[in-house]
Amino acid sequence: MSTILRSLRNLRRIGLKEAGHQMQNIGDTKAGTLIGTDRFGNKYYENVTEELPLRTRWVDYKTAFPNWEPSEIEPGWHAWISYMPGGQRPWELPEHRPNLTQTRAAYRTYSTTRPKISAWTPVAAPR
To answer: For the whole prediction, is pTM greater than 0.85?
Structure first.
């Protein structure tokens, strides 16, 4: 969280519209230089002078807050934002596929074999 003076300074630098967007999405106002944009439309920023160490890089996701997914970051940008040396690793796929777990598009297995255990329905004998 930022101080009031830092928030006002960033408000003056980035403008009212961008400050409102940042407060709604990341809960803080940050001013930095745009490093690049990936093919999904996510924007990557960096501010080395005023931010705390290891908090100098951040992502502005293209989608709105409840729907953004951190697995949408491409491997090269993930290495950059995590301060890892090098870019894409040789074992990584050239095209990025986001992790769809816990979404409607998640992979669900199905079985073609019959179950070995059947459900038991109790039958009460008449007295």
So the answer is: no
